[in-house]
Design brief:
alpha+beta, Immunoglobulin-like, 3 domains, five-stranded mixed β-sheet
């Protein structure tokens, strides 16, 4: 006898209905990974590029750039992740890097470091957007930055002068260092009489030579003097390291020319020469040349009488005195009144008692060689006015008057 099971069909129907209903309930869960999107009513805001900001310039280096993003927001319950694009054009047709699934950082901001450095010499554009697997937010506004080559300014290499020289008018010469990533570089020469370069005698700026060598000159330097010099390069913002330091010594002064006898007769002349520089911190003694000045006056009375230039006289007597004194020692010269070499005294001579060059030196004895100058009866004199001049608050200054 065949038995009927009226409940089997009912059970199958219920199972079928439950299967469809349960699957529908599962798909309606907004956090389910398999949910079909987009989910109605869910909106995702655009993230905001923060750094590098628009127009930023980065210097190329071994470290990749880092992007800082202000996190987006969502009205949904699903977890967001970020997508980032970096391109070389504002339309993002040339993408050089993209990151597809970045977890937003804490505190409302996300930091993302690119895996590799970007090439120098380009402007880069970058943007970001967010999605949750079902909904996709809009792209942020694009931001841009440039990557430039690093500035390189290598120090120069000094080549001359060095050692003992045969001239006191040396040419300073250096080999230019390598320069890249900048322009407007100049070289600065530092010259000092101290090895530690703490006190500079001169600081000279020179434009680089086009042949890889840069030169400059200071003109005439004092004889028998040791100098130290070095150089560096700068573009006004960045400075190279200093070069090595070279030293040199200027030669001894040349022998004075043989004395040229003037129209005077009976005036004793020296044999030429020049007293050596005194030890540091001391001075040469004042030679007493009163008898020589008197001999010049006796041999040239008319020149002495006509020595007042304020009353139509001339330089003849003073020139004869100075020229005769210089046959004994070339340290003799004229005196610049009140330290002014352009206003030489008409009755005073100088003797340079210190080291270095004579011209412009204030290390001088100040000697009045005409008594009653511009009076009715001038005579030969020998008055040491050195201390009187100093005590009055003025100075003397050695000058050649352009004659020697």
């Amino acid at each position: 006898m065949r038995r009927l099971h009226p409940y089997r069909g009912l059970i199958a129907l219920i199972a079928t209905v439950c299967l469809g209903g349960c699957e529908a309930a599962k798909s309606a869960n907004p956090t389910a990974p398999s949910v079909a999107g987009p989910i109605p009513g869910v909106s995702i805001t655009a993230p905001k590029p923060l750094e590098p900001g628009a127009g930023t310039t980065l210097t190329f280096g071994s470290e990749p750039p880092t992007l800082l993003i202000e996190n987006p927001g969502t009205s949904g319950v699903r977890t967001l992740w970020l997508q980032v694009e970096v391109g070389t054009d504002a339309g993002f047709q040339q993408i050089v890097h993209s990151a597809d699934r970045l977890t937003p950082g804490e505190g409302g901001r996300t930091t993302y470091r690119l895996p590799e450095p970007l090439g120098a010499g380009y402007t880069y554009y970058w943007r970001a957007r967010a999605q949750d697997g079902a909904n996709v937010g809009p792209y942020s506004a694009a931001s841009s930055f440039s990557v430039v080559p690093p500035v390189v300014i290598d120090p120069p290499t000094p080549t001359a002068p060095s050692g003992t020289l045969t001239t006191n008018k040396p040419e300073f010469r250096l080999t230019n260092g390598a320069v890249s990533g900048t322009s407007g570089v100049v070289y600065r020469f530092e010259i000092s009489q101290s090895a530690d370069m703490t006190s500079l005698t001169a600081l000279v700026t020179a434009n680089p030579g086009s042949n890889g060598t840069t030169t400059m000159t200071l003109g005439e330097l004092p004889y028998n003097t040791t100098y130290y010099w070095r150089a560096f390069a700068t573009d006004g913002t960045k400075q190279s390291n200093y070069s090595s330091t070279l030293s040199f010594r200027t030669p001894a002064p040349p022998a004075p020319p043989a004395p040229t006898p003037g129209p005077s007769t009976g005036v004793p002349l020296g044999t030429g020469g020049r007293a050596a520089d005194p030890p540091s911190g001391s001075r040469l003694p004042l030679p007493n040349m009163a008898s020589v000045v008197q001999a010049v006056a006796r041999a040239n009375p008319g020149a002495l009488q006509n020595s007042c230039q304020d009353n139509g006289g001339n330089w003849q007597f003073m020139d004869l005195v100075v020229d005769t004194l210089r046959t004994y020692d070339t340290r003799w010269g004229y005196n610049g009144k009140r330290g002014n070499v352009n206003d030489p005294s008409k009755d005073v001579v100088n003797y340079h008692y210190g080291p270095g060059a004579d011209q412009n030196s204030t290390d001088v004895y100040i000697i009045d060689v005409i008594n009653g100058h511009c009076g009715s009866a001038p005579s030969a004199g020998w008055g040491d006015n050195t201390d009187v001049t100093i005590n009055s608050g003025t100075i003397g200054r050695w000058t050649s008057r352009g004659r020697f």
